[in-house]
Amino acid sequence: MNVSDSTIENPTLTTWVWIDQADITAATPLNSFRPKLKFDPLQPVRQILDRLEVKDPELAHRLCQMIPSQCPFERDVKLFGRTLFHIPPLCKLNPLYEQVAYLRFRALCYLADECGEDISSYC
After folding, report:
1. Taking the mean position of all CA atoms in its chain, how far away is CA 74?
2. pTM, two decimal places
3. How far is CA 17 from CA 37, 48, 94, in A?
4. Residue ranges making up the domain that contains 28
5. Residues 15 and 39: beta-carbon distance below 8 Å
6. N or C: which end of the chain has fewer CB within 10 A?
């Protein structure tokens, strides 16, 4: 009898509503336990990006080429040598910024550790 044949994997349930852990620890006897439910429609996409494994060198190279190492949107708008205004980096406004940056990091680590390639061109 093969153990893997008789074992049923637990299916993952993707939720769009979650409870903040800070709300649970902040509950006191005077304050009844009423956790705030947070609606997060991007939670399934975050989970997919976090679970994505980089096991192919071609995929790792594509990810490193597509995802920039620094925010490309930060600019100083100048006219006649004087700075009119500054556009701040908008990457932090991206709700998936952390997951995408971590995906690029995992791809770089795969290329450096598993494939033994030089990643200095991506830095």
Report:
1. 20
2. 0.62
3. 6, 16, 20
4. 3-122
5. no
6. N
